Amino acid sequence: MRVVIADDHHIVRKGLVFFLQTQPDVDIVGEASNGQEALEVVRETRPDIVLMDLSMPVMNGIEATKQMTLEMPDSRIVILTSYADKDYVIPAIQAGAKAYQLKDVAPEKLLSTMIEVQNGTYQLDGHITTFLVQHLTEPKEQKWALMKELTNRERDVLFEIAKGKSNKEIASSLFISEKTVKTHVSHVLSKLELADRTQAALYAVDYQKNQPKELL
Fold first, then answer.
1. Strands 27-32 and 2-6
2. Are residues 147 and 195 in the same domain?
3. Residue 32 contacts by C-beta under 8 Å, 6 or more apart in sequence?
4. Would you give the DSSP letter of residue 101?
5. How many domains does the chain fold into?
6. Are residues 121 and 168 in the same domain?
7. Distance CA 93, CA 9 (A)
8. Could you give the dihedral angle defined by the CA atoms of residues 46, 122, 95 and 214, in that order, rounded to the nearest 10 degrees?
9. Could you tell me which residues carry 4-aspartylphosphate (predicted)?
10. What pTM, to 2 d.p., does this model score?
């Protein structure tokens, strides 16, 4: 099994490397500290499995997963994160991840998940199954209702966040000041009832993928 590890925390990456190197059938072929770097490493190495964190700089794990799934579907992605709420789980699966595990998972369980995913099956942490059921039964009108609260410019900023751009990059793309971008970001998080930019990016990716026409 050829593996790439993508996580912005050096200690986490090295801990995973240390454990996986003790496994006779695992070969670590690359590491990355952000989503963009992960995408480049996977393009070069074409691994069997990518261990992917969600909250990373430059490009988040969801966007990286989406791009990898489109370009390199044979490299299967296992999300390994601290986030267990549905605002992360659902977009990750929709982006193409084949497994979702929390970082407190037992090492042996993580390894068995990677093996199962390599063999072509989905593997989800038991704590998040409820989110999938709720997502399937949740009315679309309710899911996207908060988008109605955003102005057109706030939507523009939200979709730029989903591309993994910084405030400075968003300001350049939309021809507005960085201070104005910060204000829009604050309004977006407040109106969508989200905690941070990563949640906003995940929400936006999910929204764009589903394209609820009645709310566009």
1. parallel
2. yes
3. 4, 5, 6, 7, 38, 40, 41
4. E
5. 2
6. no
7. 23
8. 160
9. 53
10. 0.66
Angstrom distances, CA of residue 94 to CA of 32, 90, 101: 22, 6, 15
Q: Is 22 helix (H, G, I), strand (E, B) or coil?
A: coil
Tens-digit pLDDT profile for residues 96-110: 999 999 998 999 999
Distance CA 197, CA 118 (A): 31
Do 125 and 151 belong to one domain? no
The residue assigned the tokens 């496994």 is 23
pLDDT digits (tens, 9 = 90+) for 75-134: 999 999 988 777 788 788 888 999 999 998 999 999 999 999 999 888 877 666 666 656
CA torsion through residues 108, 83, 162, 208, sign:
positive
Report the Cα–Cα distance between both ends of the chain, in Å, rounded: 43
The amino acid that residue 59 corresponds to is M
Q: Which domain holds residue 79?
A: 2-135
- Residues listed for the chain: 216
| Beta strands 123-124; 99-102: pairing state | parallel
Residue 193 has pLDDT above 60, yes or no: yes
Cα–Cα dist 170/156, whole Å? 9
54, part of any domain? yes
Quote the pLDDT of residue 215.
43
Q: Are residues 126 and 154 in the same domain?
A: no
Taking Cα atoms as reference points, which of 69, 63, 18 lies closest to residue 42? 69
